[in-house]
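Have a think about this chain, tokens included, and walk me through the fold.
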Amino acid sequence: MLHRFLVAGSFALGLTSFSAQAQTTADAKTDSVNIRKIYDEALLHGQSYDNLRTLCTTIGARLSGSPQAEQAVQWGKQTMEKLGFDRVYLQEVIVPHWVRGAKEKAEVKSKKLGKTPKINLCALGGSVGGNAKAGVVEVRSWDELAKLPDAQVKGKFVFFNRPFDDKLIEPGAAYGGAVDQRGRGAIEAAKRGAVGALVRSMTSAHDDFPHTGAMRYDEKVPKVPAAALSTNSADWLSQALKADPNLEFELEMSCQTLPEVKSYNVVGEIKGTKRPDEIIVVGGHLDSWDLAQGAHDDGTGCVQSIEALRLLLASGLRPERTVRAVLFMNEENGNRGGTKYAELAKAAGEKHLAAIESDGGGFTPRGFGVEAAQPATVARVQQWAPLLAPYHAQEIGPGHGGTDIGPLKDQVKALIGYDCDSQRYFDLHHTAADTFDKVHRRELELGGAGMASLIYLLSKYGL
């Protein structure tokens, strides 16, 4: 999701050489002028922010299978049609349909502690519902759980309380180091006879917002409820267990998984003028979790992808290769949209040059992470860093492309992840706080311009 990297000395030398050459070439001068046109259009007449306002405030949360997700499909289609793209169409996708149901309830009972504070908690996506009242055992690693005697786990909640590693500069790395307990905590707890899993929210922020997110089950293991505690509630519970190891946790959740339903990817296309058979994809995921408006995750990526195509047309820079904006459905709890897009592309024998994804929020641009089989492909993209440097989007190096475009890995030369300042991202990620008012207009429009500029260069020069 996030695409950070270190710039090596050899890369810096390469940029110096390229920069000196670029100053003497007509192409580089033309490219510089054209990229300036893109940024001028974005900063003076950008439409990303207003499009995001509509998506977030008139539709809101867009969990796969929900009526709001279907409204978002129609919004995406109509928005791209109004912009005059050459072709706008839908790709059918069968998606999961999980519903949260009534608001979750949780309470701690303890004779030693007396009255206890409110527990801020939410069901993890995909969890079964259920009511349970039991003791709690806290662990911070899989090894800790494995070493506990069965008698200390059976019939209790397992409380996975491993925090983010705040020594790490990149929050995405800290997320990666903690998220496994969310993903398979319920499985490992159930294997030991636990009645449920309680998981610390995936953030370094200390607040009362619980973070939902996908979890999974093993069909060979009983399915037990899984819920996320806000970091403040997790810290309180940890201290409470020290004071009273025999306290009881009471949980009530009514979530359930309904039959799968039909939904769609939304695709808008501008046909290339010289190499229309070579395709560049840019996209974000249209679905979001159900607690808020899905602004940074991933409304911003969707509107930036649409805007990237609009900026090319508005700047008079019709691409030489075909460019598609794809609003993928079901990234959050299945990646069915990304998988279906790749499947259809392969069946049609399409030739994809590159795929770009924005799914790290709409914060201040930094550059791009490039995932490619050949180091020369990464170096090719790095050569354009001087053209993006005036706009502070020049940090280009090896990185992760993105979940939605991942299934295209064997069909493209490069998967490219849009990279922005991620320090605040996990304060909002998968929470009720991920709302439109948290997005800054200028940061958002600059991101769309950076993506459009890279598409312009990819379309002109290839890889």
Remarks:
- The first strand starts at residue 87 and ends at 99.
- The chain has two domains: 9-96+259-461, 101-254.
